[in-house]
Amino acid sequence: MEGVLAEALLAQSRDPRVLLRTLCRGEASAERVETLRFLLRRLEDEGVQGGGDALSEAAREVAAGYLVPLLRGLRARPAGAPDTDAPQARRRVLRAAGAALRSCARLVVGPPPLAAALAEEALRDLLATGSIPGLEGGAEAAVEVLAAVGPCLRSREDGPLLERVAQAALLLALAGDGEAAALAAGRLLPVLGQGGPAVLQAVWGGLVAPSGPDRVDLRLQVLSALAERLLPEPFAHQTGPDARCCSQFWRTVQAGLGHAEDALTRKRARYLLQRAVEVSAERGADCTCGPWEGNGPSLFWWSEKKKDELLKFWENYILIMETLEGNQIHVIKPVLPKLNSLFEYAVSEENACWIFHPSWHMCIYKRMLESENKILTKEGVIHFLELYETKVLPFSPEFSEFIIGPLMDALSESSLYSRSPGQLIGSGSPLGLKLQKFLVTYIYLLPEEIKSSFLLQFIQKMTSRHWCAVPILFLSKALASVPRCKALGLEGLLALRDVLQCTMITHQILLRGAAQCYLLQTAMNLVDVEKVSLSDVSAFLMSLRQKESLGRGTSLWTELCDWLRVNEGCFGRSSTCTSFELHETSSLNAYVKNLVQEYIKAPAWENEVFTLLQNFVMSATESISDFILRRFTMNELSSVSDLDRCHLYLKVLTELTQLHLKVGWKSGNPIWRVLSPLKNTSVRHLQDMDSGQEPTLEKQIQRLVSMAALAMVCEATDQKPEFQLDFLDAGPMERFLASLQLNQTLQKPHAEEQSSFFEESSSSQGWGKIVAQYIHDQWVCLSFLLKKYHALIPASEGEHLELILPAVQMPGRTLQSALDALTILPSDQVLPVFCCMKILVPKLLASSESLCIEAFDMAWKIISSLSNTQLIFWSNLKAFVQFVFDTKVLTIAAKIKGQAYFKIKEIMYKMIEMSAVKTGVFNTLISYCCQSWMVPASSVSQGSLSSANNYSELILEACIFGTVFRRDQRLIQDVQTFIENLGHDCAANVVIENTKREDHYVRICAVKFLCLLGGSNMSHKLFMEDLAIKLLDKDEVVSKSRTRYYVNSQQHRVKNRIWQILLVLFPSFDQNFLNRIIDKIFQAGFINNQASIKYYIEWIIILILHKFPQFLPKFWDCFSYGEENLKTSICTFLSVLSHLDIITQNIPEKKLTLKQALSAVLQWCFHPNFSVRLYALVALKKIWSVCKTWHIEEFGALTSIVESSLNQVENMHGVGNAKKNWQRIQDHFFFATFHPLKDYCLETIFYILPRLSGLVEDEWIAINKFTRFTDIPLDAGLQWYLSPTKLRELNPGDWAQQDIGSNSGEADNQPEWADVQKKITPGKNNVPDADLELVFPDRAAKLGKSMSRLIVVASLIDKPTNLGGLCRTCEVFGASALVVTSLQSINDRQFQHLSVSAEQWLPLVEVKPPQLTDYLQQKKSEGYTIIGVEQTAKSVDLTQYCFPEKSLLLLGNEREGIPANLIQQLDVCVEIPQQGIIRSLNVHVSGALLIWEYTRQQLLRQGDPCHQVRAFSETSNWFGQTK
């Protein structure tokens, strides 16, 4: 077509110069420039006669006057300016102009050479604009010109110019992401690579020269573009460098293989590796590149003698890397065994050395560990950690670098440490255990000279980031397991101390403490004591938290003391100590060591040692307390910096007071001799300062000090209640405190004193915190006052009393002041205010309800705001619960049934809601309430549970409480359980008090509380009956909310908990109460429940019928329901009958009951449903054995029927699983082992049955948790905590129905799969190119794939999914274009999900449906055959049709097909033969079938058809790949 057009133009004019000038005038449209290109190419190919110098000059004019300005105009667009031209048309113009410019350069024959002149000018432009922001367009134009004229430059004459151009292009290509850089790498450098050895050597030298950190993707882009010159085919002449022999080249390839961010970069790296291997195999000559470092193996080598082994190694290697691109674990897992074979190839067992460089293996692991698929990351980590379990690998620095780098980065992900499916809670993380084993083995095998540096780098890496609690724990545990060796010096000890600081970040106290224990163990195992001083060790030990890890009496404490004693003479000297200081320190250390040694040698003397120390301290009490008193009474504390000393003195005095209280408060106690004058002095100072004088900084500080001292005295006096009874009369201090102006703030000092204050405040508190502390101390004093005189608080302020103590006798005003204080004080200072409110609210609730409600609301807002503040939240929450849910408050609120009652319930539900996100909130509430109700619960007085009765919803919610944890929350719970199960082996378990904030403890608290209630107490009985009714109502609501729910869902768990509590309550049920609820219990049996719930329902029915046989008639009535009601529930009632021996124990006359049971069961033994028949036969077998035991002869008529039925099922020989299922159901724990009476205990209800019935481990409550929870005592008369039967010894696998002979799991055990999935890559040596500026045919040629002459028209298709799938299919099979109704459709997410970027590699044409007629006519004129995919009267069978090379497929609309007017434009209609009933296929599937048939036929027409068909058959059935 191009040649015809050029001939037609030349036929119109004998002078081509006229044609050239004509085409250079007017608008530079794509068609005009392409026509110019056709004409110049024709002139160049044929060598026009008679043109001579004139034609040469005309070509020069066209180049300089038209084409170069045109390229500059198209490229030199200002940065940020809108691209108004259509991108596709603009690309056509650029490509046509470049080709035309190349033809002009060849047509110019005289000097000066046009190509060299244009190249010089373009090079100057490139050097001038390439690195200037905003002028990128000029650089792009220069690159276009250089790419056009580059092939015309002569390697000998223009050699220096070519080298300069190559160097500039390389610098530009490696500079960044700009369009000019992409053009330089994708188009210019490949062109220049043909310019001779010198040019190629210049480019190569720039690529492999050592340089600073740069982008690997840019280097690989250039290397891929030059691959044909750097890695030439065997028949090509080697004129340039051989990339295979360069270590830097292979390092670049390896960096690209592990490049996590860019798939295209990885593809280029794989391409270069694959081409190098293929070139080496085809050449057949040995080659090697020198070792990268030291004497290790070469990064790449080839030996013809080992060709087969090398090909196998690299084939597996490339297959693994290609498979990892899919990120599909089911595809990747079968390929992983090939990774093991790579290690077998790579290591020489004879010489114990590496044959292949181990860095290649690290590339695979790096790719896996940096995958966005966390499952793949975990597989990669586990595979690497398992290496040394079966192999002994030689040492390699690459392994250590990989461990310190990518491996530890991957290990920072907490989710990797989750349990494996089926693994029990608390059994430990499989990955954590593998990490421990790996680290021990790896460090053991390390050379001694490497061991110290590796461990130091490993520990330093642990300090380089903020680790979560779980990873830092398992890394520390792995380090602690390393055998003792002298590997760490002072730098290592400091690094361990830094890791300790990292552990403090987490709020998980137990995990934090355990990590500290393991880090201390690591220090004792690995530190070389000769390289550290005792002071260095002491500084490290000071970083440990005593209350979390290093506690006296633990095994770790003893081990530390032994370690210190053994090494005391070996520690080095501190470099900072002088000789005198060293001598003094040594003497002191020796003295302390002697004391410690004596204590350790005689642990039985602990009480004596403590007594001795105690006596020493008490003997000095008088002098210490006198010293402190002088400081306070002599006004020595008067500056901001003195506040710290004030707090220190008061803390010392508090400790002394507690010590004397513990020993015994004696008359004439020196502490009281100090407290009394301190109290009087503080009151006098505060009274003097209320005189109205202008405050100064000194007076304000003294005021603050006096109030702090008074608060300390109040707290000390409050700790000795018997002392308060002697002084109930209001003294000066009490009258002063009662008249104190509450919330009074301290004014800032005078202006002249501001400077001195701010100078001191840099090391002290700010004024706001000082004032807050002052107000806090006021409320501490007031709390003491209210506790002491709580009996004087009136119920309302209306009572006329003599105001001796205003704050006590005017509670309303005091409570209002408390609300004001909550708005002033910071959250960490509100505890004394809560304590005051706890005393005031019960007094005022009846008379000032609105004020009390305001107090509830404001306190709850504070608690809500603190939910993310770990340090002060729990203490404030406890104080909040104690005043809002005080028994007196609950009783009064329930009695008056006002707004306070409903506000308390509202807060209750808010706290339960908060527990879903902050574990432990509900625990605090339910534990306090149950403890406050526990004392009256043990009483037998009527109405003792009235408070609990009014708030029974709290117990109800506690009974069914428990959230479905998020994965991260479940992981924390699992790891905490694992640490707890270590017991005394982990010192943190001994030191840290178990806070019992797990959700389980909410239900445990409720259950233990219910167990304390007695059925003989009427109030207890009524409470439990009311709770049982509410539980049954809750079960009904949950059942109706969702007719079908899934195993372990929230609905399943709630129902399960309901029936567990009903079983706990069952002993308190009498016949009268059961009459009220029996129908609901039987009705629950008719509901389609999960297995665990069925067991509980069946169990409670058995217990009811055993204890109260009077309900048997109602039970028999259940078998009379219609079959529609029984089809899903009859098995429940048949299971009950399987325990008829238990049911009939209390029935004197068993004959009638057995007869009714046989009558009920026999009718179901012949049911069409196989499962129903099995349950009926099991029940029949049990009932019949009871009949035989009691020798009931009246059933003789049934003997033959029953015996024959049972014999038949016992001896069945049919095919299928019938006999196996019969055996399984008989071995089922509920029928074979479970005893409804003997197994009635908490362990069976809450642990054994959930475990055996397949409930998730979150629902298993071990019996030791009941005994561990000591907030509620055990019921002394309750002996049913442990199951006495063999049921507890069963495992779920003993009865779970599993398909015997299943091949599940065999796949994982195969050493290596014979065949695996492999996504094909079209073309033999496909060069991955990111230059989207290339037009599609050229880009396809770069990719090494052929483009067919097939056009697919999809303008009638509406759905983005069909269009996306067609786009992918067209690209895979090389269609020349896909026609769509709108190019905007490619932006649709559904389209992109199906196309997987195919639109970037396939020409897309936009043709609206109304334009289709004209488009089809145009294509007909171009020689295309228009083929419709439609069923018509004249349609041709697809198997009979032969596609022309130039074919256009028109696809119809999803619903309406091809319209009638377009059918008339078709040359032929093709239909797909069908065998089924449905008359049509999906339009994408139809199109795909025709596209493949067209491709198949074209392949068969080409040479060597067998080879071509075989190449496409490697797609592994294309229809199976559309995923």
Description of the molecule:
This protein is mainly α. The chain is 61% helix and 2% strand. It has a seven-stranded parallel β-sheet. It has a two-stranded antiparallel ribbon with strand order 1-2. Helix 69 links the parallel strand 5 and strand 6 (1377-1380). Helix 52 (1018-1041) packs antiparallel against helix 53 (1050-1065). The longest helix is centred in the first third of the chain and has 24 residues, at 52-75. The chain is globular. The two termini are 40 Å apart. The C terminus is likely disordered.
Q: How many β strands by DSSP? A: 11
Outline the low-pLDDT stretches: 77-85, 578-588, 599-606, 751-755, 757-764, 937-944, 1294-1311, 1319-1345, 1504-1523
User: If strands are numbered along the chain, what order do they take across the biggest sheet?
Assistant: 7-6-5-10-8-11-9
How far the N terminus sits from the C terminus, by CA atoms, comes to 40 Å
User: How would you characterize the largest beta sheet?
Assistant: 7 strands, parallel
How much is the average pLDDT?
79
Number of helices: 74
β-strand amount: under 5%
Principal-axes geometry comes out as globular
Question: What class do helices, strands and sheet pairing give?
Answer: mainly alpha
User: How much helicity do the residues have?
Assistant: 55-70%
User: What does the radius of gyration come to?
Assistant: 44 Å
